[in-house]
Write a structure and sequence with these properties.
- With 579 residues, the protein is mostly helical.
- It folds into three domains: 82 residues; 114 residues, no CATH class; 310 residues, no CATH class.
- It has 23 helices and four strands.
- Strands 1-2 form a two-stranded antiparallel ribbon.
- Helix 13 links the parallel strand 3 and strand 4.
- Helix 3 packs antiparallel against helix 8.
- The longest helix has 31 residues.
- The protein is globular, with a radius of gyration of 26 Å.
- The N terminus is likely disordered.
Length: 579
């Protein structure tokens, strides 16, 4: 196969061959080959990462300006490509890269808006930003000037802290708490920037240390006091308490932008309605399982029995090994997907710390499955909630979700096929893949007992609830506390686990659509499976292998790839996967 040359750094044109397309191969009934834009996408990814390492100061106007130029240059490059000469794989990469560039530009605008909201709380941010960017430009530091600026910063930060503490107790609005919590994170980032700046000169430049040692220390301490004042007086968190679940809603317009970037042609309200409709099936199946367990239609009582079936302390790793072996045997006997022997050989297991379990009360996985189960240092109530929430019937759905055929197999294959498409990674593909296997294994009869079905239904309802609460919170229609109540009342969560779930959804690093993406991505793959496997065009193994070998991308583009959908330069999402 002929490889494409790397881009000449000074050129603004993509180097594409105009001759023969790459050699083709077949997966089932589709013909695929290497994308002509593979190297170009890899170059974009490497250059973007390099710029990120150079421009490190969050919310910096100069950083935004540089990335706007970078994205604009790449949009110009892409516009010069002869789309009609590309193969289907090349056209997919063209559309994915164009979509990525549009979204990144929109994200810069969103960052600018967030920065403006914080500006009154951090009027001294430019002082630290300018000091670091002077250093990054290799300009000589003006130590006396820097010392003066830092001394003034310390005074200003202490004044702001005093003002924050002067506000009436519990008088902050939710909007004020949201901006304050975001600002606390920004202040921590600024302190890190200041430490890096100081470390570069201190000890190497005697004049620098003479002038700035004391002002730097005072500025850092004042910022720490100010962050504490914001946390206590505005956010409402006292020392020793868990951080309140505040969140940072992006609103209807933000959700519209994010759904467009994910190539999903539905409104948030339509997706919430879909979740509610799927809940009808969940409720029917839970009642059916409850009747088989001897609880009539009282699914909550049946769920309580399932939770009490936990294994003793120390035995959870053995359970995970057994469940993993059962899942691999089940899918290989039915020839559902290729499982390379090496993928089953190399996965590992680690235990989570009590601190990690506050945010992740259940498994996390990939090549390493991280196990949430009690340690001897945890309070008795927390131990019981952890064991109950990780019982064998719940774990039956989560072990194969995290290992094989879920995230571990997924990561194993995407590190070997179409690796350049990591640039287009999306939770709708990443989490949707693992969620889809929960659906398929249910349909294939993997859960053998009503207790097993109840455990799998718990997770299905959990992912549906994520759609409802995550979209509604970002729309401003639901509070985080109402989201917790939804998980407890409608899913059957332990309250502490529900709080951890909502905390990681809104106070962590997850993107706004991440939690909704599990079930929505799974439903997209289910709809595509019905078209291709249900329609007799592919076998299960061909279907699943083709998805894994195609690389990470929005499911709309997976469908275009597997179905040979005609693509145009201005193609936009139009697939209606809700049935």
């Amino acid at each position: 196969m002929r490889s494409l040359p790397r881009l000449v750094p000074t050129a603004l044109l993509l180097l594409l061959v105009a001759g023969a397309l790459p050699a083709q191969r077949r997966i089932g009934q589709i013909s695929v080959g290497a994308s002509e834009l593979r190297d170009s996408v890899a170059l974009f990814t490497s250059d973007r990462a390099a710029l990120g390492r150079r421009w490190t100061v969050e919310y910096s106007p100069a950083r935004r300006a540089r990335f706007r130029t970078f994205y604009s240059d790449w949009q110009a490059r892409l516009a010069k490509v002869d789309f009609n000469k590309l193969s289907q794989e090349g056209r997919i990469d063209y559309l994915l890269l164009g979509n990525k560039l549009r979204y990144e530009v929109a994200q810069l605008g969103r960052e600018e808006t967030l920065g403006r909201e914080m500006a009154p709380l951090v009027p001294f941010a430019a002082v630290i930003t300018d000091l670091e960017e002077v250093r990054r430009r290799f300009e000589k530091v003006d130590a006396p000037k820097a010392a003066k600026a830092l001394a003034a910063l310390a005074v200003q930060a202490d004044s702001l802290a005093k003002g924050a503490r002067a506000k009436p107790a519990n008088g902050a609005t939710r909007a004020e708490r949201i901006v304050a919590l975001r600002t606390i994170g920004y202040l921590e980032d600024l302190q890190g920037t200041m430490r890096n700046w100081n470390r570069f000169y201190a000890g190497y430049d005697p004049e620098f240390s003479w002038w700035t040692a004391d002002p730097s220390r005072r500025a850092n301490e004042a910022i720490t006091r100010y962050a504490k004042a914001l946390r206590e007086a505005i956010v409402g968190q006292r020392e020793g308490q868990e951080e309140p679940i505040v969140g940072d809603p992006i609103g209807a317009e933000g959700l519209r932008e994010d759904l467009e970037a994910e190539m999903i042609d539905y409104t948030p309200d339509e997706l919430i309605a879909l979740a509610e409709r799927e809940f009808v099936w969940i409720d029917q199946e839970r009642k059916k399982a409850a009747r088989e367990m001897g609880f009539g239609e009282d699914w909550r009582a049946a769920l309580e029995k399932v939770k009490q079936a936990f294994v003793p302390p120390g035995e959870q790793p053995d359970l995970i090994r057994r469940l993993s072996r059962e899942a691999v045997q089940f899918i290989t006997q039915r020839d559902l997907v290729t499982v390379p022997p090496l993928s089953d050989e190399i996965w590992r297991m680690e235990m989570m710390t009590p601190r990690q379990q506050l945010v992740s009360p259940f498994f996390l996985g990939g090549e390493i499955i991280q196990v949430s189960y009690p340690t001897d240092s945890m309070a008795d109530a927390d131990k019981m909630m952890s064991m109950r929430g990780n019982n064998p019937h719940f774990s039956m759905a989560t072990v194969h979700h995290e290992l094989i055929p879920g995230h571990h197999l997924q990561g194993f294959m995407t590190s070997r096929y179409n690796t350049h498409r990591g640039a287009f990674s999306t939770p709708f593909w990443g989490e949707g893949w693992s969620l889809w296997w929960e659906m398929l294994l249910w349909d294939q009869g993997f859960p053998r007992t009503p207790e097993d079905r109840m455990g799998m239904l718990f997770w299905r309802s959990h992912r549906l609830a994520r759609i409802i609460f995550s979209l509604n919170v970002h729309l401003g229609r639901m509070t985080p506390q109402e989201a917790i109540d939804l998980l407890v009342d409608r899913v059957g969560h332990e309250r502490a686990n529900a709080e951890a779930e909502v905390r990681r959804s809104f106070n962590g690093s997850y993107s706004p659509l991440y939690q909704a993406a599990y079930m929505l991505g799974g439903l997209q793959i289910r709809a595509l499976h019905r078209e291709l496997v249900g329609g007799g065009r592919m076998t299960n193994k061909e279907f699943h292998d083709a998805i894994l070998q195609g690389g990470r991308m929005p499911i709309e583009m997976v469908r275009a790839r597997l179905m040979g959908t005609p693509l145009t330069r201005d193609y936009r999402a139009a697939w209606k996967f809700i049935q």
